[in-house]
Every structure is written in structure tokens, then in C-alpha cells.
Design a protein that fits this description.
With 321 residues, the chain is of the alpha/beta class. The protein contains twelve helices and seven strands. It has a five-stranded parallel beta sheet, sandwiched between helices. It is globular, with a radius of gyration of 19 Å. The structure holds thiamine diphosphate and magnesium ion.
Length: 321
């Protein structure tokens, strides 16, 4: 798949934005200023960006508890997200959602989700809407290896199959559900499960942005052509604990350091595009600098922003149709 210079720069900038956002939150969470739970996506950037950069605002995605990367990849604003994570009134959801409930319907981001396996059924609804109204949109569910064992996920694969929906199921297989290894908890294979519901499954190296991008292009084209759902089984790894504060005693000593040094998706992207002379170091360095400034600004802004007021407790309780 050929990508032009602008696409490559956008991909790099989005991956770097996610990395910087997450590395910074890791530091900030430790100060105790951020309320609630935070699950970081660092290490998995190529998956969200390789897929979402091929979607429009009309296409829907449903995310997980590890949702910052999906939001940023789908074009959700950094400042609105940061304010939301800090629980500020100026946050995307008025400071009432926090990290695990960021949503931005204007970007087709249906929401992060604290319910493991909660995203796939939502995506069946969005994909059914697209099919019935003939909008040409597709819908993508991100879910983890742990979520792949939830009944909701398997029921969604079945619905997408019988209704021939423009849906894409992305299993982000980072090898763990909290501290439980997928080698212990996942029976059979993701590809076998997809085949059982009559849909193709692409096995993808999630450390390789271009592999994700190519597989997503095939699945998106199939969905847009009305040919039905697909699965992407993306093997990747998270760099931080399951949640911020996780002591991570279940990972082998040196496991993450080795991954960072040898397989990092952003370093690999950078090496590939510079060796092929598609982008040069100056382009990439200036993207790094812009990203650092943007995150710095967003954190400072969020820290100084007002919290919701008491009166805000009584808004957003009911939806008027
Ligand atoms: C229905 C439900 N069961 C259990 C939990 C507790 N829980 C939160 S995250 C998680 C593990 C999810 O693992 P996985 O789907 O592999 O995603 P990852 O954290 O690896 O990205 C569990 C069990 C939950 N939030 N919802
Ligand atoms: Mg997992």
C-alpha cells in the first residue's frame, strides 16, 4: 500500500502524540492529581493509528478501558481529552467521564468503555445503521484478548456474520488480561473463532505500522463493498502496567525493556521511512517537538481549569430525544 508523504507524517505525528500523551500521564498520575483509573496504551500505537487513519468521521469506532490511543488516532482533540482525564468542566464530557468514558460522537468515537467486551455490540448497532441507511460507513470494534472471551464479543461476531455487516473486529492481543496470560485463558485461536463465524481473519504484527495499515485497508475495502465483516488479530504489547499503579509482577524481568529496544513500533516506522528516504530526520524531529509542546500545553491547561460545579451534578442525567 503506497502512502504519500503527508499520510506518513500524519501517521508518525499521531503515534508520537499517543506515546507522549501516555508517557506524560504515567508521570502525572503518580503525583496523585488525576482522579479515577488510568490504563495506558503506550506500545500499541501502530494498531490504533494504522486503522483509524483510514476512517472518516462518519465511520464509528468503539474502544476499551485502554482508550486514549483509539481516541487520538480517530482525531479527538488532545486538550479536550486531557481536561476530561483531569475531571475538568472543560473536558470533552464535562469532566464527568474521565479516562474510561471519553467519547466524541462528532469524530465517530462512540466511547471508551469500562465494560470488557462492551464495544463489539455497539459496533454491530453502528454497522447495522450504516447498512440500513446505506451511508457507506464502516464500524470498528477494538477489544482485548481478555474481551475476546466475553459472550458479548462472540455474539457480536455472530450478528455481524448473519447480518453481513460492514464491521471490523480488531483483537488487540497484548498477551494479558490484567495479570492473566492469554496462553492460559484463550481457547483455540482468534482466527479459528472468526472462521467459525464465517469471516476472514488477518494475522497482524502490531509492532509493524505498515502491516496493520495493509490488513486494515483490506478489511475496510471489504466492508465498504458490502462483502461483510472481518477480524484483525493484532499481536502487540503494552509498555506500562494493566492500570497505573499495577506492580506488574507477572511480567518477566527485562521483558518490556527488550520490547522497547527491539520492537518499538515508532522506532521501526522511523527507521523504515528514513531508510527509504520517504521522510527525513528533520521532518520527524520537528513533529516530535510539536507534539511535546502540545502535550505540555494540554497538561498545564488541564491543571488550571475549573472543576464542574455542584449544579453540574444535575445535568446530563437524562437524555431528551
Ligand atoms: C465485564 C467486565 N469484567 C471484568 C472487568 C475487569 N477488567 C477490567 S480490564 C480487564 C482485562 C481486560 O483484558 P483485555 O481485554 O485483554 O484488555 P487489555 O487490558 O489487555 O488491553 C478486566 C478483567 C471489567 N471491567 N468488565
Ligand atoms: Mg489484553
Amino acid at each position: 500500500m503506497q502512502m504519500n508523504r503527508e499520510d506518513l507524517l500524519q501517521a508518525y505525528r499521531r503515534m508520537r502524540t499517543i506515546r507522549e500523551f501516555e508517557e506524560r500521564l504515567h508521570l502525572e498520575f503518580a503525583t496523585g492529581e488525576i482522579p479515577g483509573f488510568v490504563h495506558l496504551y503506550a506500545g500499541e500505537e501502530a494498531c490504533a493509528v494504522g486503522i483509524c487513519m483510514q476512517l472518516t468521521d462518519r465511520d464509528a469506532i468503539a474502544s476499551t478501558h485502554r482508550g486514549h490511543g483509539h481516541c487520538l488516532a480517530k482525531g479527538v482533540e488532545v486538550a479536550g481529552m486531557m481536561n476530561e482525564i483531569y475531571g475538568r468542566k472543560s473536558g470533552l464530557c464535562g469532566g464527568k467521564g474521565g479516562s474510561m468514558h471519553i467519547a466524541d460522537l462528532s469524530k465517530g468515537m462512540l466511547g471508551a468503555n469500562g465494560i470488557v467486551g462492551g464495544g463489539p455490540p455497539l459496533i454491530c448497532g453502528a454497522a447495522l445503521t450504516a447498512k440500513v441507511l446505506k451511508t457507506g460507513a464502516v464500524a470498528v470494534a477494538f477489544f482485548g484478548d481478555g474481551a475476546s472471551n466475553q459472550g458479548t464479543t462472540l455474539e457480536s461476531l455472530n450478528l455481524a456474520s448473519i447480518w453481513n455487516l460492514p464491521a471490523i473486529f480488531v483483537c488487540e492481543d497484548n498477551g494479558y488480561a490484567e495479570s492473566t496470560s492469554s496462553a492460559y485463558s484463550v481457547g483455540g485461536s482468534q482466527a479459528g473463532r472468526a472462521a467459525g463465524f464465517g469471516m476472514p481473519c488477518h494475522e497482524v504484527d502490531g509492532f509493524d505500522f505498515f502491516a496493520v495499515h495493509d490488513a486494515a485497508a483490506t478489511a475496510i475495502a471489504r466492508a465498504r463493498a458490502g462483502e461483510g465483516p472481518s477480524m484483525l488479530h493484532v499481536r502487540l504489547s503494552r509498555y506500562f502496567g494493566h492500570f497505573e499503579g499495577d506492580a506488574t509482577t507477572y511480567r518477566a524481568p527485562g521483558e518490556v525493556e527488550r520490547l522497547r529496544a527491539e520492537r518499538d513500533c515508532i522506532a521501526r516506522f522511523r527507521k523504515r521511512v528514513t531508510e527509504a528516504a520517504l521522510l527525513d530526520d528533520a521532518d520527524l524531529d520537528s513533529a516530535d517537538e510539536a507534539v511535546t509542546g502540545e502535550i505540555e500545553h494540554a497538561v498545564a491547561d488541564a491543571k488550571n481549569a475549573p472543576l464542574p460545579s455542584e449544579a453540574d451534578l444535575l445535568t446530563d442525567v437524562y437524555v431528551a430525544y
